[in-house]
Structures are given as structure tokens and as C-alpha cells.
Amino acid sequence: MSSSSNKKKYIEPLEPRNRNLWLFILITFSFSWILWLPSLLASNGLIQDTPFFRTLFILGSYSPTITGFILTGIYDGLDGVKLLWKRCWHHYNRLYLFIAIFLIPAFCLASYFLVYFTTGVEYQGFDLELELKMGIATFFTFLFFAGGLQEEIGWRGYALNHLQSMYDALTSSIILGGIWSLWHYPLFYINGTPYANESFFSFMFSIIVISVLFTWLYNNTNGSILVAMIFHSTVNISYLKFLFITTVLGRIVFSVFLNMTVVFVIVIFGSKNLVRGELNVIFPILAN
Predict the structure, then answer these.
(1) What does the pLDDT look like over 226-270, one tens digit per residue?
(2) Is the pLDDT of residue 1 over 50?
(3) Nearest to 283 by CA among 191, 216, 184
(4) How far apart (Å, rounded) are the C-alpha atoms in residues 53 and 9?
């Protein structure tokens, strides 16, 4: 494949620099946790809740993306910021785009049908026709306001690149998954979040596992933040619409599907880059 064709199809990432990952973590955690603090105090009855606290809560969720842009501007200048923004709206290889959209919903549906045909247990309060009608609106709501745009520019666009300049893709995924899960920790004590009354350690394990799939999609799409945002959105939608209203058996079946897929990806694509073939050359950050 010629270099000229590469320029037409791909957005070449900047070469990794000695960015300060700890600074990214410090700013991201501090910004989010400070803005989440009023909601946390209100949820525990220490102060009176107000609509303004909800606004602060939403703003705090954008901390990874805001910090990613700020530090990219510091280390890579305006060209780096422009490149980061472009990578939010491009993708390479439609196969991985389709995987980002349909993989987790397919696992949820498969889990449901397996449970239904083996136990007869049905979802309660779930209107499939209504969910399909609301599907597009729900997707874009989650994309812009519930995870995708709020976080992925920071986690994948900034932090993952830094980690992969030092470690292999699998190790980077595990480290980032641990950091990412810890960032969510206050949400387990704030009323109205999907994490309230859930097990943090189960959540941490699932986040570390699914981080491998995020890296796999990201690396195989020439560092597409768009694909990461879409995958993040479909994960959140699926968990909210399916896993929180199904049985323990359904969750177990889903976990089996997810873990087997992660093992398959590691074995077939390799832990070093989670990429096969010429994409190792196309994406310089991940080149051998």
C-alpha cells in the first residue's frame, strides 16, 4: 500500500511524547470528584440537593475529555489539538465500526434468549417496540451526554496512547481499566446513578476486561476515538436497558460471552498490539 493512499484513507497520529500520565490522572480525578462532591454529600443527607448540583455532576463527567484536550495542547500544541479532534470523527475499517455498535447489544440479547428458553424468565417492564422507536434518540443522548464524548477523548485519545508508548496493548488496557474504574468510585455512593448499590469490585473487573476490547477496536481503526465513543455508548445503553433488569443467570451468561471474546481477541490478535497485519505499519504508535 503506497504512502499516498495512506494519506487519503488515514489520519496519521503524532508520535508519542513523554507526556505526564500522572498529571492527566490528577487533573481528571480532581475536576470530576470536586464537581461530584455536592451530589455525593446530598445523597448521604449532609446537605440539601438542588438542580444546580446535577449540572455540576454532568460537567464533572466531561473531565477526561477536557483534560485530554488541555494536556494535548500543552504537549503537542494546536496541531495536536486539531488532530485529536479529527480523530473524534473518523474511522478506519467498517467491520470494527459495526462491532462497536452491535457486539454488546448482541451479547445482551443472546443472554436474554438463552435464559428465557432455559428458565422461562422474561424481562419485566421492557417494551421492545418502544425501545426501537427511541433507539436513535437514546443512542445520541448517550453518545454526547452519557459517557462517549464525555470520556473517550481522554481515556483512549490521550491516556491509552501514552500507555502504549511504554507497555504492550494488553498491559496498557489493564492499567487503564483500573484507572478508569477508580474514577467512577464516587458514583457508587450517589443516588440516581446506575452504580448505586452495585459491587464496585465486580464493576472494576468488568471494566478491566472490556478495556481490552476498547483497545482492540481503537488500535484496529487507526486510533479512531469515534469508534471508542460509539462502543462506550452502546455498552452503557446495553447495561442500562438489559443487564440491570435481568436475572443473575443472565449476567453470568453475558460475562461468559464477554470473557470468551476477550480471550479470543488476545489469542488471535496478540497481546503486544491487539492488531494483525499491515495495521501495525499504518498506525505508527503501535508499530513494531
Answers:
(1) 999 999 988 888 877 776 556 777 788 888 999 999 999 999 999
(2) no
(3) 216
(4) 44
Exposed/middle/buried for residue 268 (C-beta within 10 Å: 0-12, 13-18, 19+):
exposed
- Tell me how crowded residue 282 is: count the other CB atoms within 10 A of its CB: 19
Distance CA 13, CA 287 (A): 12
Tens-digit pLDDT profile for residues 136-177: 666 667 666 677 888 999 999 999 988 998 899 999 999 999
The cell for 13 is 497520529
Query: How far from chain centre, in Å, is Cα 153?
Result: 10
Residue 256 C-alpha cell reads as: 461468559
Specify the pTM. Answer: 0.84
In the numeric block, which cell numbers belong to residue 4? 499516498
